[in-house]
Design goal:
Radius of gyration: 22 Å
Number of domains: 2
Number of helices: 12
CATH class of the largest domain: Mainly Alpha
CATH superfamily of the largest domain: Fido-like domain
Structural class: mainly alpha
Helix content: 55-70%
Length: about 350
């Protein structure tokens, strides 16, 4: 264990592997956006909010939800901030759809350069329309590679000179497709799966192919890769910004552990918060971690299961499973016991 009560990195990876296996074998894999609109809508709101917030957007989640669901610009933020969210949301929705139900034009590969450029075009065009980059040339619009060199980043990582960008993006796409082939075939990646994904994400950001919007585009491209491989998309929360930046700096030095762990936790979080409970339905048995909510922490649910107060079963793998219906029944019984034991006035 690392720190008090914090699972080790190895445990995080093993826990994710077990959850992914259960998703595929028990629930048939990821549902498509048409099969489960509510699941993808929840992820969509969270991703549009948090991924833009990582870049400094100040809209809160309820403002993002009002903007995306009702077309209402709540509050008094600059137009650029609303357009950042709208552009990102459009690109994310395109990513989910193309990943699970690609159009006829898709050639079957994990990723293409045209898709990378399309993601950037969709995410950044609404922003560019109201606040174009002050140094952009006429040929550096959204979807086009940069024609400027980039100053070194904190930690001294320096992106390649701009004439090298197109070739390096092409090499990166080929590397990503090769990694996808290895994952599908079960070949040894030489590192844990999530650290291979971390490597791909970091190497995209090292190239920094666009004048602006590379972080947003890189996270969207990562999610396109993840979902096409049959994995849940990730949301890096704004409260994780510092940890994310430090992990990226470590990855710049070819240490992918911290970034891999961050990605693993984000995949596991989306599995448990949105995907598994909704796929299973209210009566379906799911790991207790998928039933954690504001009312009950994981230790509280586990304790209730062990005491027999929550209708749950412990599998041969040691994992306790219950259902949303059982948790609701436990909550009602718990409140009833509290009323009956409360002192009379």
């Amino acid at each position: 264990m690392v720190g008090r009560g914090r699972p080790s990195r190895t445990h995080v990876y093993e826990r994710l592997d077990a959850a992914l296996t259960e998703l595929n074998q028990r629930y048939g894999g990821l549902p498509t956006p048409r099969e489960a609109r509510a699941i993808w809508a929840d992820i969509w709101h969270q991703e549009a909010h948090h991924s833009t917030a990582l870049e400094g957007n100040t809209l809160v989640l309820r403002q993002v939800q009002a903007l995306l669901d009702q077309g209402r610009a709540v509050g008094a933020r600059p137009l650029k901030e609303y357009n950042e969210v709208l552009g990102y949301a459009d690109a994310a929705r395109w990513v989910y759809g193309q990943a699970l139900e690609p159009g006829d034009w898709h050639d079957g590969r994990l990723l293409t350069i045209a898709e990378v450029r399309q993601i950037h075009h969709m995410a950044m065009t609404p922003v560019w329309d109201v606040a174009p980059h002050s140094e952009a040339t006429g040929s550096e619009r959204p979807g086009s590679f940069r024609e400027h060199d980039i100053h070194p980043f904190p930690g001294r990582m320096t992106p390649p000179s701009w004439p090298l960008v197109a070739a390096q993006v092409e090499n990166w796409v080929e590397t990503a497709c090769g990694a996808g082939d290895n994952i599908h075939s079960g070949d040894d990646l030489g590192r844990p799966l999530v650290e291979e994904l971390a490597r791909l994400h970091n190497e995209f950001e090292r190239v920094h192919p666009f004048l602006d919007g590379n972080g947003r585009t890189g996270r969207l491209v990562l999610n396109l890769i993840l979902v096409r491989l049959g994995y849940p998309p990730v949301v890096i929360f704004k409260r994780q910004r510092d940890a994310y930046l430090v992990a990226m700096q470590r990855a710049d030095r070819d240490d992918y552990g911290a970034l891999g762990e961050l990605i693993a936790r984000a995949m596991y979080d989306n599995l448990n918060r949105f995907i598994v409970p909704n796929v299973a339905g209210p009566a379906g048995l799911v790991p207790l971690a998928a039933l954690v909510e504001q009312r009950f922490t994981l230790p509280a649910l586990r304790q209730a299961a062990q005491r027999g107060r929550l209708d749950a079963v412990q599998g041969g793998d040691g994992i306790w499973r219950s259902s949303r219906k059982a948790v609701d029944a436990y909550s009602v019984a718990r409140h009833s016991r509290r009323r009956n034991t409360a002192p009379s006035e």
